[in-house]
Amino acid sequence: MSDDRLNTGLNDPRAVDILTTEHWSLLSARALGYQEMFGRATIFVTILSATVIALTLMAQATHFSRDTLIVGLLLVSVALFIGLLTFIRSVAINYEDAVWVTGMNRLRHAYLQIVPELEPFFVTAHGLNEDRKALAHGAMQGAPNLARSLTTTSSVVAALNSILVGSLASDVATLCGAGLAIVATSGVTVSLVSAILHVGYAARFRRRHAPVPDAMPSS
Fold first, then answer.
1. CB under 8 Å, gap of 24 or more: what pairs does 174-182 form?
2. Is 164 within 8 Å of 51 (Cβ atoms)?
3. pLDDT tens track for 89-109
């Protein structure tokens, strides 16, 4: 009976095997998330490239007539729709990836509870406090994490989406017979508004999806 009481929790000889299995499961989940994000981004960029090539060929054939603007309005709208879906899913994948990272940090915390002497050999975070500092989910968007966010795949997609929205605005203004100044101003203004909306959506997503709750002490 005394041996059974001692072999509980992290003292159980099966604990390391269970933790290792979970660790590999989280690694696989991260890999699948990256593959999905890159696959979606590749499809979006491919569609966008095909749209640009098609519009270029049509513009040369029709000498930039009104028909080119109408077809461009339709093609760019389709590309923008794909881009918006790609952005929304990319933001969600970023959050899911952060959750998997949090899980692996907790597993390292468990490893160190089993063998505390291994702590000097861990170069990655292994405590709940480190998770929150690194991930900052639910935190207000500030200059440091905003600059870091601009390097993500979702930010690149957001930039392309904003350019597409601005192109649509300029296209509509041209079809309505607006002058060059109005066409350019409308395109730039709508692009900037779109960029702000994309950043706002990502920030709201971060606030709505708080970090996973505490499951163990950080010490």
1. 174/69, 175/66, 175/69, 175/70, 175/73
2. no
3. 999 998 888 888 888 888 888
- Interatomic CA distance for residues 39 and 145, integer angstroms: 25
Q: Is residue 219 part of a domain?
A: no
Q: How many CA atoms lie within 13 A of 203 on its CB side?
A: 14
Owning domain of residue 44: 11-208
How many domains is the chain built from?
1
* Within-domain flag for 181: yes
Assigned domain for 1 exists = no
With a CB cutoff of 8 Å and minimum separation 6, the contacts of 167 are 72, 76, 187
Q: What is the mean pLDDT of each run of 10 residues along the chain (219 residues)?
A: 58 84 92 94 95 91 85 94 96 89 87 84 68 48 62 90 95 90 94 94 83 50
Backbone angles phi, psi at 127, to 5 degrees: -150, 160
Is 106 a domain residue? yes
pTM score, two decimals? 0.81
Nearest CA among 157, 159, 192, 153 for reference residue 83: 157
For residue 130 the two structure tokens come to 């480190």
DSSP strand E in 32-138: where? Answer: none
What token pair was written down for 216? 């163990």
Rounded distance, CA 48 to CA 71, Å? 14
Both tokens of residue 9? 């929790």
Identify the three-state secondary structure at position 210: coil
Joined together, the tokens standing for residue 208 give: 């709505």
With beta carbons less than 8 A apart as the criterion, state whether 212 and 102 touch: yes
